[in-house]
């Protein structure tokens, strides 16, 4: 069982109908959310949707206007930030420049009055956890950006919080280092068993590190699911469009599995498991990689349309095609580049066929 699938598991964190207003502006709007122990939980959403506010409510830097937040079943409202088993790591790691790596990690522990031997043992353990044993005596300016990030992580885990909040923790790193660090972060989360809640602008990062992802929009949660659940079965056009690339086709149901659309003489075949109401309007979401691009029509296809290649983006292992259909609609299709084929299978203005399985589409309300 994943923690959130286990009926016996009690959530570590519960938001119960939480609203946070700033003046008459509602930043968090009647939010309900359960986060379980040992989860790596990611919050994604456009700028201003309330991600940071949600984290600040957990840390205790803000208080809900109404509703309740509990940690381990206890109402957090009367507990001040420094007494909560919650820590927050900010993007600007805010390491003390005049203190060594070890002293930076020890800082919070010292202030909470841990004895000398226990302190040393804990600092050593943390140094080992983030693989910085050799750098214990260096100052922050004598280590790399990635190493500074790990010091900050070690410092925020030193007091063994139940919950660690990470606000864009890898934002200062370049792409390659960022990707490597994502795996380290996952390893550390797993080995400590601490619950991590991460806010990131990087969808790929959220999908990589998180056990579950929440998509926020205007202070509300649009969908919470595993990364592949969010990607494969988005429950709204908003989510489908927010995560990865998607084609959204508008149409009207002519039968439970037939969608009449602007481009086709024949309606599209839609997935078996999502019957539609005849006469109603829907959107069909199809990921570009689910659409085959071929020079000749395939022998069998649930859905087939013809178009002309408008643009090609060569991405090494993949190429993305923008294909213009007769009626002017543009469809994105992505296909793997096989080494045996020439680099690009098609070129601009080629006439191509697009085909996809009925099961590749996701039926969404208009
Ligand atoms: P970003 O991705 O840009 O950091 P976010 O999703 O973290 O955005 P929040 O910082 O949570 O968004 O802000 C949510 C909304 O609440 C924004 O419209 C913001 O302007 C507003 N807000 C946040 N803090 C305050 C405050 N102290 N006073 C007034 N409005 C605030």
From TrEMBL:
InterPro entries: AAA+_ATPase (IPR003593), ABC_SmlMolc_Importer (IPR050093), ABC_transporter-like_ATP-bd (IPR003439), ABC_transporter-like_CS (IPR017871), Mo/tungstate-bd_C_term_dom (IPR008995), P-loop_NTPase (IPR027417), PotA-like (IPR005893), Transp-assoc_OB_typ2 (IPR013611). Residues 13-243 form the ABC transporter domain. Its EC number is 7.6.2.11. Transmembrane segments: none annotated. It comes from the Bacteria. The keyword ATP-binding applies. Keywords: ATP-binding, Cell inner membrane, Cell membrane, Membrane, Nucleotide-binding, Translocase, Transport. It catalyses: ATP + H2O + polyamine-[polyamine-binding protein]Side 1 = ADP + phosphate + polyamineSide 2 + [polyamine-binding protein]Side 1. PROSITE patterns: ABC_TRANSPORTER_1 (PS00211), ABC_TRANSPORTER_2 (PS50893). It is an enzyme of class 7 (translocase). Belongs to the ABC transporter superfamily. Spermidine/putrescine importer (TC 3.A.1.11.1) family. NCBIfam families: potA. Part of the ABC transporter complex PotABCD involved in spermidine/putrescine import. Responsible for energy coupling to the transport system. The complex is composed of two ATP-binding proteins (PotA), two transmembrane proteins (PotB and PotC) and a solute-binding protein (PotD). This is Spermidine/putrescine import ATP-binding protein PotA. The lineage of its organism: Bacteria, Pseudomonadati, Pseudomonadota, Alphaproteobacteria, Rhodobacterales. The gene is potA.
């Amino acid at each position: 069982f994943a923690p959130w699938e286990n009926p016996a598991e009690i959530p570590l964190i519960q938001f119960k109908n939480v609203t946070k207003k700033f003046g008459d502006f509602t930043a968090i709007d009647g939010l309900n959310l359960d986060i379980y122990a040992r989860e790596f939980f990611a919050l994604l959403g456009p700028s201003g949707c309330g991600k940071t506010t949600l984290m600040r409510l957990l840390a205790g830097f803000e208080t809900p206007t109404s509703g309740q937040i509990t940690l381990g079943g206890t109402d957090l409202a009367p507990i001040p930030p420094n007494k909560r088993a919650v820590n927050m790591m900010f993007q600007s790691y805010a390491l003390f420049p005049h203190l060594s790596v070890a002293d930076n990690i020890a800082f919070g522990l010292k202030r909470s009055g841990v004895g000398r031997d226990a302190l040393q043992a804990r600092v050593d353990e943390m140094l080992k956890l983030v693989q910085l044993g050799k750098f214990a005596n260096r100052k922050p300016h004598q280590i790399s950006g990635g190493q500074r990030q790990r010091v900050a992580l070690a410092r925020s885990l030193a007091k063994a919080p139940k919950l660690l909040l990470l606000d864009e923790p890898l934002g200062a790193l370049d792409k390659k280092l960022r990707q490597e660090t994502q795996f380290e972060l996952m390893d550390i989360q797993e080995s400590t068993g601490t619950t991590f809640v991460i806010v990131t602008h990087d969808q790929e990062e959220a999908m990589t590190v998180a056990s579950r992802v929440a998509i926020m929009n205007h202070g509300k949660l649009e969908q919470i699911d595993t990364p592949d659940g969010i990607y494969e079965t988005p429950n709204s056009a908003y989510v489908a469009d927010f995560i990865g690339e998607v084609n959204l086709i508008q149409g009207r149901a002519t039968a439970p599995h037939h969608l009449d659309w602007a481009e086709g003489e024949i309606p599209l075949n839609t997935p078996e498991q999502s019957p539609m109401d005849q006469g109603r309007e829907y959107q069909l979401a199809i990921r570009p990689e689910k659409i085959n691009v071929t020079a000749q029509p395939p022998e069998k296809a649930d859905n087939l349309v013809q178009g002309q290649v408008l643009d090609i983006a060569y991405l090494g292992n993949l190429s993305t095609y923008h294909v213009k259909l007769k009626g002017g609609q543009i469809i994105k299709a992505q296909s793997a580049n096989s080494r045996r084929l020439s680099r690009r299978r098609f070129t601009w203005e080629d006439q191509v066929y697009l085909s996809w399985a009925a099961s590749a589409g996701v039926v969404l309300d208009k």
